[in-house]
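Task: sequence design from structure.
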């Protein structure tokens, strides 16, 4: 059960003991986790029926990607009704049952909120299209006249994150071309205008709707995109998202977003239960650089967590990982927040495949991997992925896991083009395979239809045959399996209080070995990750607690992480 009172613990403060500061949160992508009705698409009753898997894994909470009413043009990130469940996923009663069952099992439930845009099938957007330019209905979105003599050019040079212009032109009732509207993503995802107070009021009411249904928090989609620079000026040409400050782009990380999150923080704090560990939390999906700017999102009066995507994108190179970890820890320490680590999610190539390339060539974000691309080395990728996870789960702070990574699932890189559903594929004119490869339904039982995903063979994306041997039932109780590794790591992490510990680097190791100690409740835990080319000795007398692979001859092989109690 949740919310056990403990001493003078306040539910509303940044108390060091608050649950979210070291929580491990498991992302379920509802389409692809468990299908109860055999239509090939996962659903809420399916999730509820499988929650014990998360208890056995040892996570603290589950984050559900959107399951709201949606035409599913962007797999549910195009919301037509923020307050209802799409029939493909179930009903509101199913959502309530899921939350109640999770709470009974001691799991918290985080849901997604998508405040940057709606679906073009949302009642507001339909009304806007049916209304005159300049009307109150249009003022909820970013409608503008086009440039050029006849308004034939988009209002500015912004590009959609999925490829192509970020503007689409409307057609007036008489059939003539009309105004343009902004969509940072697909044309079916019109951006809301956050300078309009009605928008903020509506989204706050949506937060309350789900808090009243007892959810434990929200992951905020495109958290850095809500506020656009005044006047919607052209953005810089040749902006390099890998190195340049995000705020140089007029659509991201604008100062005004922080006011929104201060208001949201006050709102969720109203729902905390004094004397119980029941903080409702807010976690930003914000692809923001530099990392000090990202830390602004987790200042004491703003959000609780913000994914550290810089760490996710760091290549498998010891010196770079060390810098990334240091910057990750110092940036949030400056504002008194924990760091939020993550290696995989539904938008990036799974880390078991990303790490199966030479370090600098690993592909990360939405471009995906197609059958014609160079293929990752699956054994190398899995080995490094296990080492990377063991590294991440030793770090102080909270961590997010993505469904299937506990099975070592690789990206599905050979999906046929006709199976692709990510709008990136079409919008990039078939140059980016997109994100479908990390969204394939997960395997539960090797010898059942759809590997146990559902009662039939139907799956909305085809499952690679390699998923059979990675099914939960093939790994459960099997020494050395990735599933058992994750269970061990999560148990030891909890027992040793690693998520609440202090990290100190040990400078004795060779340069291509990461070596540090995390001092938590149970004393010091030493961690070594070998990114070099030779095995390194484990100090004699060490008591090994967990290792991402076998440790022959008391040495740490290449691409392996070990946790131990020093002699
Ligand atoms: C980020 C989400 O994670 C991604 O899946 C989605 O396509 C975009 N935001 C747009 O909502």
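Answer:
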């Amino acid at each position: 059960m949740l919310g056990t009172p403990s001493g003078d613990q306040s539910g509303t403060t940044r108390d060091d003991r608050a649950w979210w500061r070291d929580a491990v949160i498991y992302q379920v992508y509802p389409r692809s986790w468990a299908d109860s009705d055999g239509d090939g698409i996962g659903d809420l009753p399916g999730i509820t029926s499988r929650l014990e898997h998360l208890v056995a894994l040892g996570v603290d909470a589950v984050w559900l990607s959107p399951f709201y009413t949606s035409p599913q043009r962007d797999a549910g990130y195009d919301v037509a009704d923020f307050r209802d469940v799409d029939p493909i996923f179930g009903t509101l009663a199913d959502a309530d049952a899921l939350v109640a069952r999770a709470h009974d099992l001691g799991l918290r439930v985080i849901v997604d909120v998508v405040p940057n845009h709606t679906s073009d099938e949302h009642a507001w957007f339909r009304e806007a299209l049916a209304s005159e330019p300049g009307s109150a209905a249009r003022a909820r979105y970013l409608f503008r006249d086009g440039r050029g003599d006849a308004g034939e050019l988009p209002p500015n040079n912004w590009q959609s994150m999925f490829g192509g212009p970020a503007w689409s032109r409307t057609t007036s009732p008489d059939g003539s071309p009309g105004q343009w509207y902004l969509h940072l993503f697909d044309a079916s995802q019109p951006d809301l205008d956050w300078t309009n107070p009605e928008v903020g009021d509506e989204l706050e009411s949506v937060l309350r709707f789900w808090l009243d249904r007892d959810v434990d928090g929200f992951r905020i989609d495109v958290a850095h995109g809500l506020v656009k620079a005044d006047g919607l000026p052209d953005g810089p040409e040749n902006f390099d998202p890998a190195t340049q400050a995000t705020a140089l782009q007029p659509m991201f990380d604008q100062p005004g977003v922080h006011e929104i999150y201060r208001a949201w923080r006050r709102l969720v704090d109203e729902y905390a239960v004094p004397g119980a560990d029941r903080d409702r939390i807010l976690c930003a999906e914000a692809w923001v650089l530099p990392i000090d700017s990202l830390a602004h999102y987790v200042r004491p009066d703003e959000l609780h967590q913000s994914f550290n995507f810089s760490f996710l994108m760091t290549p498998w190179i010891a010196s770079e990982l060390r810098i990334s970890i240091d910057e990750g820890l110092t940036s949030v320490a400056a504002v008194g927040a924990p760091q939020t680590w993550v290696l995989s999610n539904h938008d990036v190539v799974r880390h078991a495949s990303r790490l199966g390339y030479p370090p600098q060539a690993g592909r990360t974000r939405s471009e995906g991997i197609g059958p014609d691309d160079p293929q990752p080395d699956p054994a190398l990728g899995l080995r490094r992925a296990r080492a990377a996870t063991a590294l991440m789960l030793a770090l102080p702070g909270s961590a997010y896991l993505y469904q299937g990574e506990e099975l070592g699932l690789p990206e599905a890189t050979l999906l046929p083009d006709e199976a692709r559903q990510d709008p990136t594929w079409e919008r990039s004119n078939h140059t980016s395979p997109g994100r479908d490869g990390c969204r394939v339904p997960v395997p539960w039982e090797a010898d059942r239809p759809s590997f146990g995903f559902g009662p039939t063979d139907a799956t909305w994306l085809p499952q690679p045959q390699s998923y059979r041997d990675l099914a939960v039932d093939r790994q459960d109780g099997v020494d050395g399996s990735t599933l058992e590794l994750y269970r061990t790591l999560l148990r030891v992490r909890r027992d040793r209080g690693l998520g609440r510990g202090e990290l100190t680097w040990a400078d004795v190791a060779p340069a291509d070995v990461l070596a540090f100690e995390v001092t938590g409740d149970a004393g010091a835990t030493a961690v070594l990750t070998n990114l070099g080319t030779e095995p390194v000795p484990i100090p004699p007398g060490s008591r090994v607690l967990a290792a991402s692979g076998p440790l022959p001859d008391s040495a740490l092989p290449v691409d392996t992480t070990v946790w131990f109690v020093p002699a």
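The chain has 14 helices and 20 strands.
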